[in-house]
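Subgroup meeting minutes
Present: P.N., E.W., G.H.
Scribe: E.W.

1. P.N. recapped why we're keeping a running log of single-chain structure predictions: easier to compare across weeks, and new members can see raw inputs and outputs side by side.
2. G.H. added today's entry (230 aa).
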Amino acid sequence: MREWMKNRDTFTVKDVRELKGNFLPSILKKADSLKEGEGLCIIQSFEPIPLYSALGEMGFEHETEKISDSEYKVYFCRVSMPEGKSDDDMPFKPTAIVNFNTIDPALADNVVKFWEYIWAQENPAIDQKTRLLLSLANGVGAGRMRQAVREFVKGYTIGISIKEFDELFALFAWNQGIGHFASEIGSSALFGAYKFVKTKEDKGVERAEIVKELLSKFGESNPDVNTFYK
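Output recorded in log:
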């Protein structure tokens, strides 16, 4: 047990088991307000593994207590104040896992473990950028444009170049046909996000500013991107 766990009774407690929708922003906002040595306790029906990396990027360590098969307590303590963001930071954490929790906490637990296996391996053979390009292409091929636009935003945020996206979109036209591209892909939020980035880059806008505007325009507030029912 880490030394800071001795102070866990002073941590702010957030029980999210019955909350619906995307509550991650409120957790991150609260976490961001904490100083070194301060902490947060999250209570969830399944082990909230995606939170480990999300708060880890913000300088938090964690300890997990499994109370029962349907109750986990995770204590997060801020041990450092990171400066800036790393290339591995991505928007759109897998908050839609909460939808599975609505059905059955055991199902959510299985889904989050599968997510961890796919996306949280320590030394994956396929690098993260290639994974996102493959996931984007699979989303388009399956007609899941909501997934595809999220993968595009994540990919651009961590450094995939617009030239790489140019070649990928050309492959969409080749593999799915000009007619399909014109009627389905060209009218999608995915193509809108791609076009938005290209236009900004052509104007010489800095990548950091483009990312900021991209997240504002094609973030969770966009109904074609959000994964929760409203």
